[in-house]
Amino acid sequence: MTPDIIIAPSILAADFANLAAAAHAVEGAADWLHVDVMDNHFVPNLTIGPPVVASLRRATGIPFDCHLMIEDPKRWAPAYAQLGAYNVTFHAEACDDPVALAKDLRAAGTLAGLAVDRDTPIEPYLELLPHFDTLLVMTIKAGFGGQAFMPEMLAKVRTARRHANAGHLDIRIEVDGGIADDTIEAAAAAGADAFVAGTAVYGADDPARACRKLRALAEASRVRQTTSDSGGRTV
Ligand code: DX5
Ligand code: ZN
């Protein structure tokens, strides 16, 4: 069964010398492991690439949510599908034909995700959403972990959720950046149902416990939302 809420710890905030341990630390508590791939061109930062993903894939059973912050995703993204990623997300800003790449990814056996960075409006991409399984709305400027959550980004989540509901689209809306105990409820209320958390999970003493707390807060927020949408009746 697909869970209502996806919690995706980002290994960007983990100890890069112990990535397998970081994965094991959230097994049973997280739904996806968020893998931030950065190429020092699309974003200034540089992280990991296919060899690390291949090794880590063998070390854990958690589905991988690969977030490609790279130029030329058409060239590189299908490799992550072939390595066994569950979802591969690339940036709208880096791709002139997102629908073609989404088709390539699905054909390679993975879910296809579209990411929009802080300064990118969502409206031009709404019509493309039927071709995607996930929409990732950055709630910071892509590139580094540990930044402050930007609540104004939730307007994009609300717009996308309205559009998805109106069109009965089967799409996850994921938020990434500054997600923590004090921000996840607002993101869930706006319509997000997948939550990336780096610092909030791997900065905690007990990463699995941090995941469970985030999930409980997101679930409670969605229940409140459903109740208020139905005029106060419990549904
Ligand atoms: C940043 C990455 C995020 C990052 C989030 O560009 O896409 O996934 O790990 O880190 P936190 O949760 O610390 O904001
Ligand atoms: Zn990310």
Q: What attributes does this structure have?
A:
235 residues; TIM Barrel; globular; D-ribulose-phosphate 3-epimerase activity
Walkthrough of the structure:
Pathway: Carbohydrate degradation. Substrate binds at residues 10, 67, 143-146, 176-178, 198-199. Its cofactor is Mn(2+); Fe(2+); Zn(2+); Co(2+). Keywords: Carbohydrate metabolism, Cobalt, Isomerase, Manganese, Metal-binding, Zinc. It is a single chain. With 235 residues, this protein is α/β, with parallel strands linked by helices. It has one domain: TIM Barrel (Alpha-Beta Barrel). The chain is 36% helix and 17% strand. It is built from eight helices and eight strands; from the N terminus they run βαβαβαβαββαβαβαα. It has helices spanning 19-26, 50-59, 73-82, 98-107, 154-166, 184-190, 199-202, 207-229; strands spanning 6-9, 33-38, 64-69, 87-91, 111-116, 134-138, 172-176, 194-197. An eight-stranded parallel beta sheet has the order 1-8-7-6-5-4-3-2. Helix 6 (184-190) packs parallel to helix 8 (207-229). The longest helix has 23 residues, at 207-229. The chain is globular. Zinc ion binds at residues 10, 34, 36, 67, 176, 196. The site of D-xylitol-5-phosphate has 22 residues, from strand 2, strand 8 and helix 7.
**Main structural class:** alpha/beta
Low-confidence stretches: none
Question: Can you identify the CATH superfamily?
Answer: Aldolase class I
CATH top level is Alpha Beta
Spatial gap, N to C terminus: 21 Å
Ions, cofactors and other bound molecules:
D-xylitol-5-phosphate, zinc ion
Level-2 CATH architecture = Alpha-Beta Barrel
Query: What characterizes the major β-sheet?
Result: 8 strands, parallel
